[in-house]
Amino acid sequence: MLMKRNLNAAPIPCQRHLFAIPDEVAYLNCAYMGPLMHSVIQAGEQGMYAKLKPWEITPQDFFPDTEHARSLFSRLISADSEGVALIPSASYGLSTAARNIKVTQGDRIVVLTDQFPSNIYVWKEKAKTSGALLTFVERPADDDWTRAILESADEQTKVVALPNCHWTDGGLIDLEQVGKRCREIGAYLVLDLTQSLGALPFSAESVQPDYIVCAGYKFLLGPYSLGFLWVSPRNREGIPLEYNWISRSNSENFAGLVDYKDTYRSGARRFDVGENSNFILVPMLNRALEQLLEWGIDNIYATISRRNSDIAEQARQLGLNHIADHLRALHFLGLRFPPGMLPTSIAADLAKRGVYVSVRGTSMRITPHVYNTDDDVQHLFDALEIILSRHV
Length: 392
Ligand SMILES: Cc1ncc(COP(=O)(O)O)c(C=O)c1O
Prior knowledge:
CATH architecture of the largest domain: 3-Layer(aba) Sandwich
Strand content: 5-15%
Helix content: 25-40%
Distance between the termini: 37 Å
Bound molecules: pyridoxal-5'-phosphate
Radius of gyration: 22 Å
CATH superfamily of the largest domain: Type I PLP-dependent aspartate aminotransferase-like (Major domain)
Shape: globular
Number of helices: 11
Largest sheet: 7 strands, mixed
Strand order of the largest sheet: 2-8-7-6-5-3-4
Number of domains: 2
Order of helices and strands: EHHEHEHEHEHEHEEHHEHEEEH
CATH class of the largest domain: Alpha Beta
């Protein structure tokens, strides 16, 4: 299974000038938190200053930015904007999905071993209250998650809840194949794309999932506490988690809000979080998405992949390995240390030297972006060599 490459994709020149990352900081940890661009900060500031004069904020101002956000996100996933809802966290979107999927005793819910907890706890609860069985696909010895998932998803499977790549080491899942299998067996496909969207190309048209969630603060380079849910057309009549006023029909008419409505605004707007017209966070996320789309996701992927392949090459000389390229998302490098060689304090030791990565499980995650430079890579290896030489 190889990631289909866009042969027209071109690496993007370093974009560090758009960020506030000092030269002495090697920030290689986008999987933890994406940094904000100056332009994103400016968009947030404008939102803050607008509320200095609330008399200038009109009812009409509650809608255009959220509609723009739907449109931008839909372009990122190749889907329709009617299916997009604004949510505060991945767990909120996953809870919406779980609330609307019926499972009964004996049904199976399939997830990955060591999957991110927001996409586990909700299914644990669902299994507990319904009698369904939560099945963890074991980490395959050959790193081929796709094969392992396809082997596990059988006729009893009602839900398959997955990422596009494993959050600990970038292990790739071929979602087109999984989507096809889900349709064959009649299972819902629920995706948490928080560790991939914005950096790894994705198409809802090709995968045909039921639900997609994505937190906005990592590879979308947005602020914390705002993300997206996309709901496929067949699931858009579902029940939202909240009973907020703005998701009901005719909510644009503030004078008529107590003319209570049982109907909702169109599409997936019923699933929006309350107070989604967040005058600070929504323009910030919009600005970040505009920039990502301007760069082009294929080009971002080409840029980060190239950076990671240089890092992987140098890491091999230190005896550090990673999942084979055809089985990992190339924007996400998980360095594997020989047994006993990963110092528990390595992330903290690197941070003391101005290098930022994270350790998840037994893997050191390296997740650069378009702001990284060759000097950052040099900085990483200078620091690693010192720390590892002291450890042996
Ligand atoms: C795969 C994945 N999903 C979701 C999240 C964030 O979850 P939430 O928005 O529920 O806090 C993270 C954060 O690290 C993550 O790695």
